[in-house]
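Progress note, sequence design subtask.
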């Protein structure tokens, strides 16, 4: 009689488990309809790192490698001007976007590629942009909401993200490159 009671109890527990747990989707697996902003949030990053309205993107959940395709390059204003190219790519990990391309930041009158973005300690309220030579520090609250992005005119004074950062000696060379006025070289 003890064996029958054990089988019935085990069957009962298994049935309860299957009825309660299986109908609910796991939050661990991103759905195909997830936005790039929800992926940023899952990685502890603010959604305001990218402009509003991104719908064309791909993300490899294993490697974190992502690709974003904008309909046009655009600029957003924070404490400084940020330029987003047609294509933005990088590697998304917790608290960090590494190997970033397609994003540049204006400092005074020069444009520098943003190579990485990181939040070391979320409670610090700080976010860091790696522009090659230094890490630029911003208030994390600046990036709470995705910014409106103004279409970037093709302007000979604006340098796209294909510019290179300062070289190892820290010098910046003035070069004419396809009509651009200044170019940071490495």
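Output:
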């Amino acid at each position: 009689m003890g064996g029958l009671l054990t089988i019935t109890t085990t069957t009962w527990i298994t049935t309860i488990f299957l009825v309660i747990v299986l109908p609910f989707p796991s939050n661990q697996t991103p759905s195909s309809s997830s936005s790039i902003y929800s992926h940023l949030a899952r990685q502890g990053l603010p959604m305001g790192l990218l402009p509003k309205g991104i719908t064309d993107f791909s993300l490899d959940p294993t490697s974190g490698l992502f690709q974003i395709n904008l309909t046009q390059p655009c600029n957003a204003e924070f404490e400084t001007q940020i330029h987003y190219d047609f294509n933005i790519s990088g590697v998304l990990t917790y608290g960090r976007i590494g190997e970033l391309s397609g994003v540049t930041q204006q400092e005074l009158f020069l444009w520098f590629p943003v190579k990485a973005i990181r939040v070391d300690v979320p409670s610090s309220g700080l976010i860091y942009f790696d522009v090659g030579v230094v890490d630029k520090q911003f208030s994390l609250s600046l990036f709470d909401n995705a910014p409106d992005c103004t279409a970037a005119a093709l302007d000979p004074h604006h340098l796209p993200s294909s510019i290179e950062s300062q070289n190892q000696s820290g010098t910046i060379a003035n070069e004419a490159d396809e009509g651009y006025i200044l170019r940071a070289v490495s």
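The first strand starts at residue 57 and ends at 59. Work on this subtask will continue into the next period as scheduled.
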